[in-house]
Amino acid sequence: MESKKITTNPIEYMRRLLQMRKEIERENYTELNSTEHRLEKVGEFNYVEYINDSISTDLDSTWLALEKMEKPIIWIVGGVDKGNDYGVLAEIMREKVKAIICLGKDNSTLFKIFQYQNIVPLIVDAKEMKEAVEYSYHWAKKGDVVLFSPACPSYDLYENYEVRGNSFKNSVREFFDQRIK
């Protein structure tokens, strides 16, 4: 019979607890994946996948969305900043995000964290959803994913996350309908 080693090192103990938390969150997040606006595939255009995760209005759910992506990410983020510490996303962003499109009225906090700290090489400001989708089209390459996972509430531009998510879906579809015609 194999005995499990019990650690008395508090740092190792905390690392194990955090790993367990991430695994539990990942399992729960996968179960919720059938919900509209939660990692909802909008479509694939020019071999680029477009994902609506408008329901992610906090850092934890956005981290999970970023973590779930297996392709290079063009990330659309932003809304009403609640004083988030976006630095907690730095590691996963360096690993997976190739460009950021900040959507909202005031993206100064996002720029301060992501651009000035050189976390991601490409970052731009978009004042409306159609502009964000157009930027994503120009930056995305075959095999990329455009992930709309805002990490913030929507109140600066939209009534709620559903309206914001529908705006993303409609903007993506309209943009590509125009390109096909």
Notes on the structure:
Helix 5 (129-139) packs across helix 6 (161-180). Strand 1 and strand 2 (48-52) form a beta hairpin. The chain has a six-stranded mixed β-sheet with strand order 1-2-6-3-4-5, sandwiched between helices. The protein has a single domain, classed as Mur ligase, C-terminal domain (Protein-Tyrosine Phosphatase, Chain A). Helices cover 43% and strands 18% of the residues. By secondary structure, the chain is α/β, with parallel strands linked by helices. The relative contact order is 0.18.
Order of helices and strands: HEEHEHEHEHEH
Percent range for β-strand residues:
15-25%
Q: Superfamily at the CATH H level?
A: Mur ligase, C-terminal domain
Number of domains: 1
**In terms of per-residue confidence, which ranges show pLDDT below 50 for 5 or more consecutive residues?**
28-33
N-to-C CA distance: 68 Å
Mean pLDDT: 85
Number-wise, the strands total 6
**Total of DSSP H or I helical runs spanning 4+ residues:** 6
The percent of residues in helical segments reads 40-55%
Radius of gyration from the alpha-carbon trace, in angstroms: 18 Å
Arrangement of strands in the largest sheet: 1-2-6-3-4-5
Which fold name corresponds to the CATH topology?
A: Protein-Tyrosine Phosphatase, Chain A
Tell me the CATH architecture: Alpha-Beta Complex
